[in-house]
Amino acid sequence: MGKTKKSWKERAWQWRGVWVTTPTITALVILIRTAGLVQGWEWAAYDWFLRLRPREQPDDRIVIVGLTEEDYRRQGQLIFPDGVYAELLEKLKEQEPRAIGLDIYRPRPVEPGHADLLRVFESTPNLVGIQKVSGDSERETVDPPPMLQANQIGANDTLIDADNKVRRGLLTVANAQNPDAWVPSFGMNLAARYLAPEGIGIEIAEGTDNWWQLGDVVLRDIDTNEGGYIRTETGDYQILLNYRSTPEAFDQVSLTDVLEDKIPSDWARDRIVLIGAVADSANDVFFTPYSAGLLELPQAMPGVEIHAHLISKIISAVLDDRPLIRSWPEYWEWGWIFLWSGVATSIAWTLRQVGTDRVEAAKRMGLILLSIVVLLGASYGALVWGWWIPIVPPLLGVVGATAAIVAYIARSAGDIRKTFGRYLTDEVVANLLENPEGLKMGGERRKITILTSDLRGFTALSERLPPERVVKILNFYLGYMADVITHYQGTIDEFMGDGILVLFGAPTVREDDPRRAIACAIAMQQAMTKVNAQMRAWNMPDLEMGIGINTGEVVVGNIGSEKRTKYGVVGSQVNLTYRIESYTTGGQVLVPEATLKEAGEHISIGGQKEVSPKGVTKPITIYEIEGIGGEYQLYLEREEEVFFALTQPLLLQYTVLEGKHIGAEATPAKLLRLSNKGGEIQLASNGSLEKPAPLQNIKLNFLDLFNAKGAGNETGNETGNETGNETEIGEDVYAKVIEKESTESNFYVKFTAKPPDVNQKLQEIYQTIEG
């Protein structure tokens, strides 16, 4: 037995090399990336992957009228007179396009034909012209055509990367002379005009930092370190361009073809028509990721075609679900580098002892090369689906980790995989790997603090909802609770439907475990405010949670078999915690005396009661927690509950719940007083009836509730059937008897689950008598 222990300790000690190598290489690669040393390589890899993507169909919603070299030769000049554009626009208008974009600067008249052009401009509301917004006002900016309205202007500015390629597009551009003003880009203006007849407008996406949304698509402004960029300027609203991966993405004709009626009569109908220079002599061309292959000379793309790609990106994303180019948050990229550094480290170590065996050496190199192929394939596949995932940094991590691992001795990667397959909590995994005895079956006796929570009446609610809706609510609720529990360093042992079992003191013992458990419970109750805000947004009733906390000795460790193991706790103290939690009503936190003493000072108590839980020989005192001071300063807000007398009592019948079972006999009673969350019930006049004990759960049904006319109704009756109609028994309502002083035949309850119709009716009655 001792020899086995020694073997585990030695192997754990040897494994330290992998734990050192992976984060070290990761940190080094992140430092290199942050310094911008691999930005150019990342851009080149990104461009390569773009060119490798499957070819797409041309976008027939956008067409281009290009000013070609032949058009310039025919005109005999590079600046066409206004009359040429007036004639061109008139011919295009006849075909009824959705929008026309004139990608030609026209800050001042060019005779002849200026009057004709002015008339066309005034009669073409779907025409958009351009201006250059950014730059020095005297040298770099260009004014828009003065005859166009403000909403017919789009910024023509272009973002060019350090390698002279255009990978980004603009949606809005800040006005250099007026920082508070912005101008929509040429492409964004035209895309919005195309989508408007589809009933799709521009709006600010809810819950975002002023990101634009068209339909269901959010056009996210890029970050400073988006994709392969490092500290890029993000002053204007920028997005990554998703070029259509086809050589001829848009139908294109020349200006002469239009003027000489060489195009079909419906060529432009219901399309966006862009007019712009495509000739090299016009000097309006740019390099893009598609400008060159490995063995090709760079081929520049006309600016008007880049605008077309931006428009197509927006329209296709909204109407065709074509992916936008997005990237991970920076910390995810760090995790991506860490992952591949770890993969390379593990592969190198598992095949480290190859000696001079060429076959084994080939296997090692083959696996490393395979990991590189998988990395490239994953990055390429992600880009096809619209995600720019870093390529070069993780590749450097693979190479660096492979080279560095020869300096370390490590234990088998198979044991690590086995460990991660058996343990689900990160803290549990880390603790067990540091402990040579951690993988043994069994456990140890330890004093810990246990927290359990449960939603009041959720089972009844879930029975009325489709399973998908129930899962949605649970995931949202449990997500909030998990965040709070993690913040207070609790270990979530299990989710059981809407219940949660949390451990404080396992696997890591801390001196303040009971105190943190109480603080965590209060924070969980406070988090219900946000949970219920979302429930109301979903038109669902509020949720209420009860929490029980207990401190005691349990057996904590590995439970199960060698094939499947669960880290958990066993013992009577776990059962007692569940019993304590069962006494709670919505919003309560209950703890026994032992936990209260160990939690220390500054604990606010709202009340106490003596209970006799099942399985406990002697009664125990439990306390209702109202808050915790000191370093936490967390307190529960208690709404004062006011009971108003009903002018006309509501008839009902109830049965006592024994555990999960409903009693056989229904007891007649009536509701005398009503509060926002409960009421006072009076037994029927039969003196032999015994009212339920405090903390018991009951199921009650109102009789003819929806025939009641509310407070002040003088036409009702005591029996509910004197009118000759049959008594209508309402849906099941669940409640808990509370400790509140009353008469011998009366008792108070707090509702724990009410059907929506019953809840609405009771609220109407309550609001009437409250007013």
How are the SSEs placed, and which strands pair?
Elements: H1 2-14, H2 16-34, H3 39-52, E1 62-67, H4 69-75, H5 82-93, E2 99-102, H6 114-122, E3 127-131, E4 153-155, E5 168-175, E6 178-184, H7 186-195, E7 202-204, E8 212-214, E9 217-219, E10 237-240, E11 251-254, H8 255-259, E12 272-277, E13 285-286, E14 301-302, H9 303-319, E15 326-327, H10 330-350, H11 358-384, E16 387-388, H12 392-404, H13 413-422, H14 426-434, E17 442-455, H15 458-462, H16 467-487, E18 491-496, E19 499-504, H17 513-537, E20 545-560, E21 565-570, H18 572-582, E22 589-592, H19 593-598, E23 603-611, E24 620-628, E25 634-635, E26 644-658, E27 661-662, E28 667-674, E29 678-683, E30 697-702, E31 733-738, E32 746-753, H20 756-770
Parallel strand pairs: 1-11, 1-12, 2-3, 2-12, 3-4, 15-16, 20-22
Antiparallel strand pairs: 5-6, 5-10, 7-8, 8-9, 13-14, 17-19, 17-20, 18-19, 20-21, 22-24, 23-24, 24-25, 26-27, 26-28, 26-30, 28-29, 29-32, 30-31, 31-32
Characterization of this structure:
It is a single chain. With 771 residues, the protein is α+β, with helices and mostly antiparallel strands. It contains 20 helices and 32 strands. Strands 17, 18, 19, 20, 21, 22, 23, 24 and 25 form a nine-stranded mixed β-sheet that branches. Helix 6 (114-122) links the parallel strand 2 and strand 3. Helix 2 runs antiparallel to helix 12 (392-404), helix 10 packs parallel to helix 12 (392-404) and helix 11 runs antiparallel to helix 12. The N and C termini lie far apart (77 Å). 38% of the residues are buried.
Features:
20 helices, 6-stranded parallel beta sheet, alpha+beta, 35% helix, 32 strands, single chain, disordered N terminus
